[in-house]
Amino acid sequence: MLTSAAIRQQFLDFFKSKGHVIVPSAPIVVKNDPTLMFTNAGMNQFKDYFLGNRNPESTRVADTQKCLRVSGKHNDLEEVGVDTYHHTMFEMLGNWSFGDYFKTEAIAWSWELLTEVYKLDKDRLYVTIFEGDSKENLPKDEEAYNEWKKWIAEDRILLGNKKDNFWEMGDTGPCGPCSEIHVDCRPDAERKLVDGSTLVNADNPQVIEIWNNVFMQFNRMKDGSLVPLPAKHVDTGMGFERLVRVIQGKSSNYDTDVFTGTIAATEKISGKKYDYSDTREAVAFRVISDHIRAISFTIADGQLPSNTGAGYIIRRILRRAVRYYYSYLDYKQPLLHQLVPILAAQFEQVFPELHQQVDFVSKVVREEEEAFLRTLEKGLKRIEDIVTGAAASKTIAGKDAFELYDTYGFPFDLTNLIASENKLQVDEAGFAAEMEQQKQRSRAATAIDTEDWVVLHDDAKAEFIGYEHLSTKTRVTKYRKV
Ligand code: ATP
Ligand code: MG
Ligand code: MG
Ligand code: MG
Asked: Do both 346 and 366 map to the same domain?
């Protein structure tokens, strides 16, 4: 079986052979862009090239980019562990043309890589192209259609709408149609039922999107009109874990060697067995092996868990994972930090930053786990009382949810989960109002600007914000002013 490491290397080697310069992944944590907390696509680090603010060193580059999709425009958190192919942190393999090659080469090479290098079954591949949108005066992508026709039967080229097949950076700026590649991994008998027009990947977990090719060819002006870009660009992104799953012939990303190491270790530590089902226990295994990647790589890239902004998102992911092993694997001690060395070794060649800081990252994770495990016990006792008191109203008051959050470190979603297990609701608006008050208080308390170091109030972008009083140590993340 081809290992995931070999699959990644083949991607990079292939594009190198087509004249691309291989560049390192940008950090997963974005420090100089007020619109983005975490890298969520390979193109983020190249934004200035597309906007014409900076010139690339090479017009052809390729890489594997660490991405995180847990906030903002792309938030896949609720899917993770429940489905088998959305992760919090994942690698996006990509190749780019900055005003160099366009649709002809991009399409031919993606076909060549998938069918000749990886030898995927041509009969299981489908592609989509943009169908056009008359209301918005966007043309159908005939060029992409004609390029694909060279390689694949026409009934496997499907039309997609603006939502899935047109990419825009924002209200203005570079934009253009995109073309996705999907793989149908269903058993033969089921596959025969499909005709091209009914293929919708959202409907079947074995029919998955693996690669998106974006063709930037227009500039959207302030008045909404489209002007052709003087230099056209290609921006592609392929989900590495999904690609590995397809090549290794597995029915879940978690069955590939990207995840089996941490799953096996979790089995050993917890004494439970992973059984590939949809039970809470199985979901817990998947969530843990997913979340520890997001946590480890983010800390290694410089974002410590904290009470606000990006740091709180990491803390929330970490607590979500702790809740899963505590409640569903019945394991009551710190577990996650034990997985960090496994990831560090596994990714040493490709993301050495984790290996280089393995002790530090493990220690941070362990401290976080210990702190939350201390309050988790007490919080679970407290929520029992709250649940009893809420029997009549069937609703946990916002103020109680806030107390659980503020005093015991329960993210809102944890309170919500326990409430629903007890057939109760949570007054979310009341909770939000308490949060808002807390935010005002902390804003007033931390409005300090010390020369070229500032404490950024990026909490407006986080989902739940505030200061907890969990321990005497309060971490404040500082950023250099840009
Ligand atoms: P999906 O429709 O499956 O959510 P997407 O259209 O949001 O994917 P793109 O923004 O087109 O994804 O990103 C390019 C590629 O990255 C996708 O084709 C997919 O292979 C991969 N990808 C996207 N989101 C995730 C995720 N949460 N986990 C793993 N891989 C992902
Ligand atoms: Mg998505
Ligand atoms: Mg999609
Ligand atoms: Mg897509």
From this structure: yes
Please report the ipTM that was assigned to this predicted complex.
0.99
134 CA to middle of ligand 1, Å?
27
In tens, the pLDDT along 288-328 reads 999 999 999 999 999 999 988 899 899 999 999 999 999 89
Expressed in angstroms and rounded, the spacing between residue 67 Cα and the centre of ligand 4 is 14
Q: Which ligand is nearest to the CA of 235?
A: 1
Q: What is the extent of the structural domain holding 55? A: 4-28+38-247
In a domain, 252, yes or no: no
Give, in order, the Cα–Cα distances in Å from 351 to each of 35, 163, 262, 301, 419: 25, 33, 17, 10, 40
Q: What angle do CA 216, 220, 226 make, to 5 degrees?
A: 90
210 lines ligand 1 (CB under 6 A): yes
Q: Of 385, 383, 384, whose CA–CA distance to 401 is shortest?
A: 383
* Residue 241 CB–ligand 1 contact under 6 Å: yes
Segment among 113-127, 158-172, 310-324, 456-470 with least mean pLDDT: 456-470
- Write out the two tokens for 172: 């203005």
Angle at 90 between CA 159 and CA 476, to 5 degrees: 130
What's the domain count of the chain? 2
Summarize pLDDT for 41-64 with one digit per residue, the tens: 999 999 889 888 889 989 999 999
Pocket of ligand 1 contains residue 179 by CB under 6 Å: no
148: CATH: 3.30.930.10
Answer yes or no: is 254 within a domain.
Answer: no
In this structure, are 349 and 476 located in the same domain?
yes
